[in-house]
Structure formats: C-alpha cells, structure tokens
Amino acid sequence: MEIAATSTVSVALQSSRLLHAFSRKLGSSSSLRFGFFERKYCVGSSRLRVSAASMDAVTAEKISPPASFLDKRETGVLHFVKYHGLGNDFILVDNRDSSEPKITQEQAAKLCDRNFGVGADGVIFAMPGVNGTDYTMRIFNSDGSEPEMCGNGVRCFARFIAELENLQGQHSFTIHTGAGLIVPEIQDDGQVKVDMGVPILKAQDVPTKLAGNKGEAVIQAELVVDGESWNVTCVSMGNPHCVTFGKKGGPNLKVDDLNLQEIGPKFEHHEMFPARTNTEFVQVLSRSHLKMRVWERGAGATLACGTGACALVVAAVLEGRANRKCTVDLPGGPLEIEWKQEDNHIYMTGPAEAVFYGSALL
C-alpha cells in the first residue's frame, strides 16, 4: 500500500443523504466545501489541513461522479470516515456488504501510521450482524493486532451507523463484537450511552497468571514490574485490563508525573498477562471523580479508552476508593461511568464526532 504524505483527491458528491449527514458534522469545523473540489491532505500531522478549489466548467463536465461517495468501489481505493471519541481516533469503513474486512491487518497498520498514512488508533469495520444482531464490529489496532472490543470505538461506530442509515434522534441497536453483545444508544444530545455488559473478574478469564486473592479475583494484588512492586486489580471488559492506583507502600499516583512511554510497555508485555494487557494508571480526586492515563494494548498511549474507564471504576469500587457512578477524566476529556448494582452491568456515556472523510490508496 502506498500513501503519499501529501495526496490530492478529486471527489464529487451528489448523494443528498451523505451530503446532509456529513456536512452537519464537518461544516462548522473545517473549510471543507461539498461538490467538486480538490482536497489536499497533510497527514503528517494530527490536524487536517484542507484546501478546496473549484474546478472549471470544462473539467467538471468531463467528470461523471459516482452516485455516492462511500459506494465507490474502485480497485485499490478505500473510502472511509475519520471519527474520534475524546481524541481516541478511528478510521471507519462501511463494510456492510461483506463479513470479511476490506483491508488486511498489515494495510490497517499502514493506514494508522501518523506520518505515512491517514493516522489513527485503529480501523473499525461496520459489518453485517450475526446471531440476530443488527451489526458486527471488528477493529484492527494501529499495530495490526485485533482486539476484542473498544469502548470509544463503539461510540464512533454507533454515530457512523446513524449517519449511514440517516437515523435522527434517539436510537439504539445491537452490535456483535469479540467481547460479546454490546448495545449503544444515541441520546437526544448526540452523546452515546453504551451498555458495556458485566465485568469479568475471574483471573483465568481476564486473563492473568496472577493468583486470585479475593476468591478467584485479583484485587489490589502485588505485581513486580521492572523491580518495583505495584498494587493492581485485574478486570476484563471483554478485553484485559490491569488497573493500578500506585506502588505498594507508596503515595497515591499523580498520573501527570508518569513516564508512560517507559512504564506502559512493561505492563503490556508482562509475563503475568498471556494475552498482553491494557493498563490504567489512576488518580483519585474524590469518590465520584477519577483521573486516568492509559497504555493500550496494541496502540500505546492514547487520549482515551472507554473499556479502560469502565474497568477502573470497577477496580475503584472493589478497592473501596469510589462510588459506583463516577466521572472519569481522560487526557481527551471526561466520560460518565456507572456500574449498576441492580443488573451488574456497566454503562458508559460520552461523545463521538466525525472529523473528515477521505480515500486512501491501497
């Protein structure tokens, strides 16, 4: 796959449905104009710079635009929409016509490269539902690996589906994921509330090789990382999480002081986590207000992690540090998390926003 650092794409949009859907999201945040335009992507930066120039009438007459931007099917071209949830950004692909991803894991890793590709934390595919669900969601991380699920990603997925299906107002649907059934609900204010299911605490199901110290659960157990002892609680939200509030016998964490690039990989690849792990470093601001930084398995340091926010609230409750309903501050912004006692389910509420749409040469 070849993607130039600066590429020029000529696109014509005539679908009123997509024009309505995506102009609402992009019109206020960029200089993008729909119709015939020449777009220049400068993908070496996390910010998109767009230049648009009207084509002359002669050139325009020679072009026969497709019926819909996302319905174009040229060989070697992938059409996508870029979304983010609190800065955790994804390339969303309309894959509803097939149960096989349109690109390989290797191609996904190249697309996610922030210097030589589009730039993202992962590529998400909207696929046909199975076992009675409305849709299937698959995701390839920026390193090409495939996680079971992604909390911020599922919110972006929900908004993407709403735009593709032209859904207005409050809607919910069922999504099949590698972590099981996930049910997002788009709220009237545009936020997405997601039923994330029941947390998994049994050590071998997280999975972790750490021995259960509270029944079969690993709660505030000792983990030696690079010669230092940390207190950790292990939780699975369909994907593994190691949550820590600090070192054994040490002060509570000040997460802004962490050298995440140094310590994060040592947790991710620790021998006690056979499937590797996501790691949440947490600072308690109050019993209803937590702050975290995250090192994601397969993606590294990210601005937000939805499943991680859910896992840390579970850990904080189990360790007696917090209530069941909390605001969790992530580098990209806050999420509202509630672990309901009535059904044992965790509910996550937060934003998801479209950033831009484009095409990539494979």
Explain this structure to me?
Its EC number is 5.1.1.7. It comes from Thlaspi arvense. Pathway: Amino-acid biosynthesis; L-lysine biosynthesis via DAP pathway; DL-2,6-diaminopimelate from LL-2,6-diaminopimelate: step 1/1. Its main location: plastid. It is a single chain. Helix content is 17%, strand content 35%. It has 362 residues and is α+β, with helices and mostly antiparallel strands. The protein is globular and about 60 Å long. The N and C termini lie close together (4 Å).
Largest sheet: 18 strands, mixed
Please identify the structural class as seen in this structure.
alpha+beta
Q: Do you know the CATH topology of the largest domain? A: Diaminopimelate Epimerase, Chain A, domain 1
Task: Report Rg.
Answer: 21 Å
Order of helices and strands: EHEHEEHEEHEEEEEEEHEEEHEEEE
Q: Helix tally?
A: 6
- Sheet-strand content, in percent, reads 35-45%
Average pLDDT figure: 84
* CATH homologous group name of the largest domain: Diaminopimelate Epimerase, Chain A, domain 1
Structural shape: globular
| Record field, number of beta strands | 20
Going by CATH, the architecture of the largest domain would be: Roll
Unreliable spans are: 1-21, 23-66
Share in helix = 10-25%
Number of domains: 3
What is the CATH class name of the largest domain?
Alpha Beta
**N-end to C-end Cα span:** 4 Å
